[in-house]
User: Fold this.
Amino acid sequence: EYDGDRNAEGERHGFGKARLPNGDTYEGEYEHGLRSGRGTYRFKSGALYTGSYLQNRKHGKGIFFYPDGSKYAGDWVNDQRQGQGEYTYANGDTYTGEWFNHMRHGQGTYVYKDTGSKYVGCWVNGIQEGPAELIHLNHRFKGRFFNGKPLGRGKYVFDFGCEQHGEYVQVEQVKEEKEEEEEAEEISLPVEPKWKASEITTLTPWTPEDEKPPSP
Assistant:
Protein backbone atom coordinates (compact mmCIF):
# COMPACT_ATOMS: atom_id res chain seq x y z
CA GLU A 1 0.00 0.00 0.00
CA TYR A 2 1.21 3.53 -0.73
CA ASP A 3 -0.19 6.87 0.31
CA GLY A 4 1.73 9.92 -0.88
CA ASP A 5 3.15 12.07 -3.64
CA ARG A 6 3.84 10.93 -7.18
CA ASN A 7 5.48 12.57 -10.18
CA ALA A 8 4.05 12.97 -13.71
CA GLU A 9 5.21 9.44 -14.57
CA GLY A 10 3.23 8.01 -11.67
CA GLU A 11 6.34 7.08 -9.69
CA ARG A 12 6.48 7.55 -5.92
CA HIS A 13 8.18 10.95 -5.68
CA GLY A 14 8.18 13.38 -2.76
CA PHE A 15 6.78 12.39 0.64
CA GLY A 16 4.83 9.22 1.26
CA LYS A 17 3.93 6.32 3.52
CA ALA A 18 4.20 2.70 2.39
CA ARG A 19 3.39 -0.71 3.79
CA LEU A 20 5.51 -3.46 2.22
CA PRO A 21 4.26 -7.00 1.48
CA ASN A 22 6.38 -8.42 4.34
CA GLY A 23 4.74 -6.14 6.92
CA ASP A 24 7.55 -3.55 7.12
CA THR A 25 6.57 0.13 6.82
CA TYR A 26 8.34 3.22 5.48
CA GLU A 27 7.50 6.86 5.95
CA GLY A 28 9.66 9.47 4.26
CA GLU A 29 11.02 10.85 1.03
CA TYR A 30 11.06 9.20 -2.39
CA GLU A 31 12.75 10.01 -5.69
CA HIS A 32 11.63 8.30 -8.89
CA GLY A 33 10.03 5.37 -7.09
CA LEU A 34 12.93 4.70 -4.69
CA ARG A 35 13.48 5.62 -1.03
CA SER A 36 15.82 8.64 -1.23
CA GLY A 37 16.27 11.42 1.32
CA ARG A 38 15.12 11.34 4.94
CA GLY A 39 12.90 8.54 6.14
CA THR A 40 11.96 6.07 8.86
CA TYR A 41 11.77 2.35 8.12
CA ARG A 42 10.09 0.06 10.68
CA PHE A 43 10.83 -3.64 10.41
CA LYS A 44 8.21 -6.21 11.36
CA SER A 45 10.92 -7.75 13.62
CA GLY A 46 10.87 -4.63 15.82
CA ALA A 47 14.02 -3.05 14.36
CA LEU A 48 13.86 0.55 13.19
CA TYR A 49 16.03 2.78 10.99
CA THR A 50 15.66 6.52 10.80
CA GLY A 51 17.99 8.58 8.64
CA SER A 52 19.17 9.14 5.10
CA TYR A 53 18.50 6.95 2.08
CA LEU A 54 19.89 6.93 -1.43
CA GLN A 55 18.15 4.75 -4.03
CA ASN A 56 16.58 2.36 -1.49
CA ARG A 57 19.82 1.96 0.52
CA LYS A 58 20.83 3.42 3.89
CA HIS A 59 23.34 6.10 2.93
CA GLY A 60 24.48 9.15 4.92
CA LYS A 61 23.66 9.76 8.59
CA GLY A 62 21.25 7.42 10.33
CA ILE A 63 20.32 5.58 13.52
CA PHE A 64 19.47 1.88 13.56
CA PHE A 65 17.69 0.35 16.57
CA TYR A 66 18.15 -3.45 16.63
CA PRO A 67 15.60 -5.89 18.12
CA ASP A 68 18.04 -6.97 20.89
CA GLY A 69 18.16 -3.41 22.28
CA SER A 70 21.45 -2.43 20.68
CA LYS A 71 21.78 0.76 18.62
CA TYR A 72 24.06 2.24 15.95
CA ALA A 73 24.18 5.98 15.29
CA GLY A 74 26.50 7.25 12.58
CA ASP A 75 27.52 7.08 8.96
CA TRP A 76 26.20 4.62 6.38
CA VAL A 77 27.48 3.85 2.89
CA ASN A 78 25.49 1.63 0.55
CA ASP A 79 23.57 -0.10 3.39
CA GLN A 80 26.76 -0.71 5.44
CA ARG A 81 27.98 0.86 8.68
CA GLN A 82 30.89 2.89 7.29
CA GLY A 83 32.63 6.10 8.40
CA GLN A 84 32.25 7.41 11.96
CA GLY A 85 29.69 5.93 14.31
CA GLU A 86 28.76 4.84 17.81
CA TYR A 87 27.38 1.40 18.58
CA THR A 88 25.73 0.68 21.94
CA TYR A 89 25.59 -3.08 22.51
CA ALA A 90 22.81 -4.98 24.26
CA ASN A 91 25.04 -5.57 27.31
CA GLY A 92 25.76 -1.82 27.67
CA ASP A 93 29.24 -1.84 26.10
CA THR A 94 29.91 0.96 23.61
CA TYR A 95 32.21 1.43 20.61
CA THR A 96 32.85 4.89 19.22
CA GLY A 97 35.06 5.32 16.18
CA GLU A 98 35.67 4.31 12.61
CA TRP A 99 33.75 1.68 10.66
CA PHE A 100 34.28 0.04 7.29
CA ASN A 101 32.14 -2.56 5.55
CA HIS A 102 29.87 -3.03 8.60
CA MET A 103 32.84 -3.71 10.97
CA ARG A 104 34.93 -1.78 13.52
CA HIS A 105 37.91 -0.73 11.41
CA GLY A 106 40.42 2.08 12.01
CA GLN A 107 40.71 4.12 15.21
CA GLY A 108 38.13 3.55 17.92
CA THR A 109 37.33 3.36 21.63
CA TYR A 110 35.52 0.38 23.16
CA VAL A 111 34.16 0.77 26.71
CA TYR A 112 33.34 -2.34 28.75
CA LYS A 113 30.32 -1.45 30.92
CA ASP A 114 30.86 -4.18 33.57
CA THR A 115 34.42 -3.16 34.48
CA GLY A 116 34.65 0.42 33.19
CA SER A 117 37.77 -0.60 31.26
CA LYS A 118 38.49 1.05 27.90
CA TYR A 119 40.36 -0.08 24.78
CA VAL A 120 41.62 2.95 22.85
CA GLY A 121 43.40 2.17 19.60
CA CYS A 122 43.37 0.39 16.27
CA TRP A 123 40.93 -2.14 14.82
CA VAL A 124 41.19 -4.31 11.72
CA ASN A 125 38.03 -6.00 10.38
CA GLY A 126 36.31 -5.93 13.77
CA ILE A 127 39.34 -7.18 15.76
CA GLN A 128 41.66 -5.27 18.11
CA GLU A 129 44.93 -4.94 16.18
CA GLY A 130 47.77 -2.38 16.21
CA PRO A 131 48.99 0.24 18.73
CA ALA A 132 46.55 0.73 21.60
CA GLU A 133 45.97 1.49 25.27
CA LEU A 134 43.89 -0.70 27.55
CA ILE A 135 42.79 1.58 30.40
CA HIS A 136 41.62 0.04 33.69
CA LEU A 137 40.44 1.64 36.92
CA ASN A 138 43.88 2.33 38.45
CA HIS A 139 46.38 1.24 35.79
CA ARG A 140 46.73 1.00 32.03
CA PHE A 141 48.56 -1.09 29.45
CA LYS A 142 50.25 0.55 26.45
CA GLY A 143 51.43 -1.67 23.63
CA ARG A 144 50.40 -3.45 20.47
CA PHE A 145 47.63 -5.91 19.83
CA PHE A 146 47.55 -8.70 17.31
CA ASN A 147 44.38 -10.66 16.52
CA GLY A 148 42.64 -9.31 19.63
CA LYS A 149 45.49 -10.04 22.10
CA PRO A 150 48.45 -7.96 23.32
CA LEU A 151 51.73 -9.08 21.72
CA GLY A 152 55.30 -7.76 21.78
CA ARG A 153 56.81 -4.91 23.80
CA GLY A 154 54.63 -2.84 26.07
CA LYS A 155 54.31 -1.36 29.52
CA TYR A 156 51.90 -1.20 32.43
CA VAL A 157 51.47 2.29 33.86
CA PHE A 158 50.27 2.46 37.47
CA ASP A 159 48.45 5.46 38.94
CA PHE A 160 50.79 5.59 41.94
CA GLY A 161 53.61 6.74 39.65
CA CYS A 162 55.61 3.86 38.22
CA GLU A 163 55.73 1.64 35.14
CA GLN A 164 56.48 -2.01 34.52
CA HIS A 165 58.09 -2.63 31.14
CA GLY A 166 58.13 -5.98 29.42
CA GLU A 167 56.63 -7.91 26.56
CA TYR A 168 53.85 -10.30 25.77
CA VAL A 169 55.27 -13.48 24.25
CA GLN A 170 53.42 -16.25 22.45
CA VAL A 171 54.06 -19.41 24.46
CA GLU A 172 54.49 -22.57 22.42
CA GLN A 173 51.87 -25.13 23.28
CA VAL A 174 53.30 -28.32 24.72
CA LYS A 175 51.16 -31.29 23.75
CA GLU A 176 51.09 -34.20 26.12
CA GLU A 177 51.68 -37.64 24.67
CA LYS A 178 48.47 -39.59 24.43
CA GLU A 179 47.51 -43.08 23.53
CA GLU A 180 46.92 -43.66 19.84
CA GLU A 181 43.15 -44.01 19.93
CA GLU A 182 42.81 -40.63 21.63
CA GLU A 183 44.70 -38.76 18.92
CA ALA A 184 41.59 -38.17 16.80
CA GLU A 185 39.85 -36.37 19.66
CA GLU A 186 42.72 -34.06 20.55
CA ILE A 187 41.60 -30.46 20.64
CA SER A 188 44.20 -27.70 20.49
CA LEU A 189 43.22 -24.83 22.78
CA PRO A 190 44.10 -21.23 21.92
CA VAL A 191 47.16 -20.11 23.88
CA GLU A 192 47.08 -16.73 25.60
CA PRO A 193 50.24 -14.61 25.21
CA LYS A 194 52.18 -14.46 28.53
CA TRP A 195 53.49 -11.22 30.07
CA LYS A 196 57.22 -11.22 30.82
CA ALA A 197 58.27 -8.22 32.92
CA SER A 198 61.75 -6.76 32.46
CA GLU A 199 62.02 -3.63 34.65
CA ILE A 200 60.18 -1.11 36.81
CA THR A 201 60.79 2.58 36.10
CA THR A 202 59.40 6.01 36.84
CA LEU A 203 56.93 7.35 34.26
CA THR A 204 58.41 7.59 30.74
CA PRO A 205 57.06 8.97 27.46
CA TRP A 206 57.47 5.72 25.47
CA THR A 207 54.64 4.88 23.08
CA PRO A 208 54.07 1.72 21.01
CA GLU A 209 54.39 3.67 17.73
CA ASP A 210 58.19 3.63 18.25
CA GLU A 211 58.53 0.06 17.05
CA LYS A 212 57.51 -2.09 14.14
CA PRO A 213 54.49 -4.37 14.62
CA PRO A 214 55.31 -7.94 15.61
CA SER A 215 55.35 -10.41 12.77
CA PRO A 216 52.40 -12.82 12.84
